[in-house]
């Protein structure tokens, strides 16, 4: 996948299928663990251009609070660009106290409330997934399809 700017990106095809160029106004990203790396690259590419009006939402799943990679960097970006990016964390193991985010595996409710709450136009949303294969296969893909999105609405790294 290559970000071309202003919400436009090119999906690189597998085998002999042609590349596909698409455009979206909102990127809804779900990352698990080290799957954050391509998401952070995409986030930085969008935020690099102040004229790019693409908005971003990230749902980032980890085993524990201590496992959250790049948390400080993500929170700094949210503080700097609050109108452009929203980040929500979920962890399997709840800490003793003070955790203001979600606990548990990524689910439909989390996707609806943290990735789609301001974005209801299916044509203007593109999902990006990167993480453990079971998370993508048993949660991400079935949920976005249940919500009425098509294969064209998502990209898996």
UniProtKB/TrEMBL annotation:
Q: Identify the cofactor(s).
A: FAD
Q: Could you tell me which Pfam families the record lists for this protein?
A: NAD_binding_1
Name all Oxidoreductase FAD/NAD(P)-binding domain ranges: 29-140
- What residues bind FAD, as annotated? 37
Q: One MF term from GO for this chain? A: oxidoreductase activity
InterPro entries the record matches? CBR-like (IPR001834), Flavoprot_Pyr_Nucl_cyt_Rdtase (IPR001709), FNR_nucleotide-bd (IPR039261), OxRdtase_FAD/NAD-bd (IPR001433)
* Keyword terms, alphabetized: FAD, Flavoprotein, NAD, Oxidoreductase
For this entry, the protein name equals Oxidoreductase FAD/NAD(P)-binding domain-containing protein
